[in-house]
Design a protein that fits this description.
Two copies of one chain form a homodimer. Helices cover 12% and strands 32% of the residues of chain A. With 128 residues, chain A is mostly beta strands. Chain A has a domain of 88 residues: Phosphoribosyl-AMP cyclohydrolase (Ubiquitin-like (UB roll)), CATH 3.10.20.810. Chain A starts with 12 loop residues before the first helix and ends in a 9-residue tail after the last strand. In chain A, strands 2-1-6-5 form a four-stranded mixed sheet, with helices on one face. Chain A has a two-stranded antiparallel sheet with strand order 3-4. Strand 5 of chain A pairs antiparallel with strand 7 of chain B, so a sheet runs across the interface. Chains A, B: Its cofactor is Zn(2+); Mg(2+). Chains A, B: Its EC number is 3.5.4.19.
């Protein structure tokens, strides 16, 4: 069973018309802490999840593994309060700035990118 | 014609073994300016693109529209120098911190998220 877009949705038709979804009806959504700039996690949204994110003030994703809507923090308490939402130039990726309560990652770390570093931040300037 | 993973790749087998790719063999890669925290864009990598990103110091993506590798900046000059690469807790998303030369977006704006704001940052706190 694969996830498919939940339609019809309540998303503003003007937004729905330009949203470019993947074959599974989903769009990647980057969650970023609005003040520190930390990238917290990447989730997936269909039209309805985006609608709920835009209108409820709480980040709502589509869980590809559980195949259900997932209001971030509903079970963990680690709520994401929505600060802003932007679509990229191709209309196929969302950037959601949030105020994250506690850990964004289900493993308990602040972000989902804290533990599996493939290439560490290099010392500094004379860059590469 | 749909994009498929470019195999075999030269990616470190220990990384390849834990990478969880989408049905198209690709993983979303978030490019973030390493010092300011700006989220610049989201691209897609297959194993070989990740290998090249890890070993050449230049961000390399798989272009889903052109179905070819794309070394960011090769035509525009808007190079991304790789500073660090991390895999998320589910091993299905990459966060690449870079030093972006010039505009990240092909439209000429600094990031790909600058122009299509669905929900503006609320005045709130001393936000921004």
């Amino acid at each position: 069973m694969s996830s498919t877009p939940r339609t019809p949705s309540d998303l503003d038709p003007a937004i729905a018309a330009r949203l470019k979804r993947g074959a599974d009806g989903l769009v990647p959504a980057i969650a970023q802490q609005y003040d520190t700039g930390e990238v917290l996690m990447l989730g997936w949204m269909d039209d309805q999840a985006l609608h709920l994110t835009l209108t409820t003030g709480r980040c709502t994703y589509w869980s590809r593994s559980r195949e259900e809507y997932w209001v971030k923090g509903d079970t963990s308490g680690h709520v994401q309060h929505v600060k802003s939402v932007a679509l990229d130039c191709d209309a196929d990726t969302l950037l959601v700035k949030v105020d994250q309560v506690g850990a964004a990652c289900h493993t308990g770390t602040r972000t989902c990118f804290d533990t599996d570093v493939l290439l560490p931040l290099l010392p500094a300037e004379p860059a590469e």
